[in-house]
Amino acid sequence: MTRTGPHRVARKDTKRTAAEGSVSDAERELYGGRLRYDMSFVRHEGPLTRVSFRHMAAALPRMVALVLRTGWRADPRAMAGVVTAQLGQGATAAWGLVAVNSVLTDLFAAGPTGERLRESLPALASLAAAAVIAALLTAWSTAMSGRLEPQVERAVSARYYRAVTRVELEATERPEIQRVLEAGRFGTDSARSMLMLSVGVGNVLISMVAAAVVLASLHWMLLPMLLVIALPKGWGAVSSARREYVSKLHWIDHRRAIASLLGFLTRPQAQGEIRVHAAGTKLLNSYEEMAHQTEGEQRRLARAQASTDLIAGGFAGIASLACYGLLWWLLANGSLPLAVGGTAVLAIRASTARLTSLVQQVNRLYEELLFLTDTEDAITLATENAIPTTGTPLPSGVHQIRLDHVSYTYPGADSPALRDVSLRVRRGEVTALVGANGSGKTTLTKVLSGLLLPGDGDVWWQDADGREQVELRDADRADLFARVGLLAQDFPRWEMTAAANVAIGTGDRVRDMDRVKAAARSAGVHALIESLRHGWDSIVFKGYERGVQLSGGQWQKLGTARSLYRGAPFLLVDEPTSALDPHAEIAAFEGLWSLKEEGRAVVLVTHRLAATAHADRIYVLDQGQVIEEGTHDHLMARTDGVYRSMFTAQAAQYRTTSPAVPSQPGHTGAPDPVESGPQ
Ligand SMILES: Nc1ncnc2c1ncn2[C@@H]1O[C@H](COP(=O)(O)OP(=O)(O)OP(=O)(O)O)[C@@H](O)[C@H]1O
Q: Taking CB atoms and a 6 Å cutoff, what residues make up the pocket around ligand 1?
């Protein structure tokens, strides 16, 4: 949205839309305008603000069908119970009205009062029975829907999350898919709300239909009368609901901006700058301004709301007056018995009171329907883009991965991240990937691990002599993933116990604490965890009971332990030592080297070239291409080589006698890079 008006919002400028007027200077300064999510649920703003009662009513069958289907799938008995209770409540409402009519007929009949009261006793008993049965049915409906709602929510959430976690990684990189998948998250609890609202709507609708049927059977004129009163009430309720919704929408942007801003004030990572850079003062002042702006917006909305209510109430009053006039005329000229008139008044009053709640609930039902539709769309899209669950199993003795002329371009990227890459990763070897930032190393590990499928070229998983082989696209991906251990640069830090953080490396397999401890020992983090007051049960996040704060390096060791615990034959580690101290780093590399001795394949992405000196094979990447390959000695022998130049530059930093000052650009002047390199 572009804005050309002055920054300060003039309060009296009533011609401005609510959206434009609700942006404060602070929001413009900190967020460049309204703080909006880049998600497709925002597309519901239009439909929801324009929607008419007719439109919503037309969507009602679809909503009901969706709720019934979801409920039936989750718990057929509870669903049947809810529907039966609802129908029963409608029937008792009709029965109650008929009983009221009988009571009034008996009371208004000719004869002595005592006799008339006695005459009305059976009808009164019937009325009481209807009330008791209605109460029982309400209780039953409450119990059944209470049992059903969480099941419905779980069913939809599980379907959604199962689907989105199976999507091909590349598909999640495409903005158009990512948006749909993300938007689906907001509808997972809509099924539950829809069920709750449907019960409410069903209840009101059935009792209103029952009232209409009873009234029509008493006198045909009573039905149009009910409708005439209902219409202005309905119009008023739709307008109020829509206004309320628009107000909520404008609040959402404000609330989001304010919450984001206040969140920083207490976020641990921001505490230093909040104090030292006075960022806290800036944020607090901005908060004051934004909150002030919001209050003004709220006042404006409240005034508009009051006007709408006044108009709706006025029309409803006029309609009621006309209807009661008509009723009076019917009673006066004897077309309607007095008792029927009394029943009509009671039915009309009860129905119109319910109407407002009906409209509000249908409005919310419609809103939830849109969100639930998003979830269903996300599930469909996720299923279409899912990693196949079938495929050719890998050869039992997989020994190597061979890449033949592999290229890969990220969706939306202008240039490929990998171009024509051919290489081999063998078990019993350490393969190092080196290169400048952005040269494609991480992307390559994603292709090697089967997370990304190349656009061109093949990735073969082969046995030792290459006779048995399966190409990545044909492979059973679950089988393939089972052979891979990953330590990504940005590996997840689960807010769980230390033990869970290691053992989560094997999914839902039963945790083996001996192996957890062995992996931690190899990663150099065992002693630290054992020394904690709650040991392996410590939650490795501060702020929880038993919570502890780990340093960056300690986390990296825990991440390494996780990938080791997996025990996979192909281990891909991306910058595993970037946060480690020198001794820990040496120990970590020694650990990786011992894995090679165990017959595993280690793919090491690192900028620490001292470590790559011992790798069996080094691939140097530049702008997605392999530009050099070989052993350390081989690469160092190339006088004009990129590897040699990088190694030399790094080694020069370790010379303590004279600092590394290149005599000319691109040349470090290091006399003997191998001897002066980090050890
Ligand atoms: N998810 C992504 N979407 C689009 N482009 C990406 C994505 N991830 C990486 N790239 C681009 O692909 C190229 C290679 O990135 P990659 O992360 O593989 O490099 P790298 O060699 O691992 O870098 P570094 O040493 O900084 O970790 C870069 O130009 C990067 O901008």
A: 173, 410, 413, 417, 435, 437-443
Task: Kindly give the distance from the C-alpha atom of residue 417 to the centroid of ligand 1, in angstroms, as a whole number.
Answer: 7
Catalogue the long-range contacts made by 511-520 (C-beta closer than 8 Å, 24 or more residues apart).
515/565, 515/567, 516/561, 516/565, 519/561, 519/562, 519/564, 519/565, 520/557, 520/558, 520/561
Q: Is the same domain home to 244 and 330?
A: yes
pLDDT digits (tens, 9 = 90+) for 18-55: 444 567 777 777 777 766 665 544 555 555 555 566 66
Residues 395-413: pLDDT tens digits? Answer: 988 999 999 999 999 998 9
Q: How many domains does the chain have?
A: 4
503 and 511 Cβ atoms separated by less than 8 Å? yes
Please measure the distance between the N-terminal and C-terminal CA atoms of the chain and give it in whole angstroms: 57
ipTM of the complex: 0.98
Q: What is the rounded radius of gyration, in angstroms, for the C-alpha atoms of the chain?
A: 36
The pick from 419, 433, 443 for probing ligand 1's pocket by mutation, whose C-beta has the most ligand atoms within 8 angstroms, reads 443
How far is the centre of ligand 1, averaged over its atoms, from the C-alpha of 403 (Å)? 19
Residues 93 and 165 occupy one common structural domain: yes
Which atom from ligand 1 is nearest to the alpha carbon of 605? 22
Domain hosting 620: range is 400-483+568-637
- Ligand 1 centroid to residue 483 C-alpha, Å: 24
Burial track 649-679 (b if 16+ CB lie within 10 A, e otherwise):
bbbbeeeeeeebeeeeeeebebeebeebbee
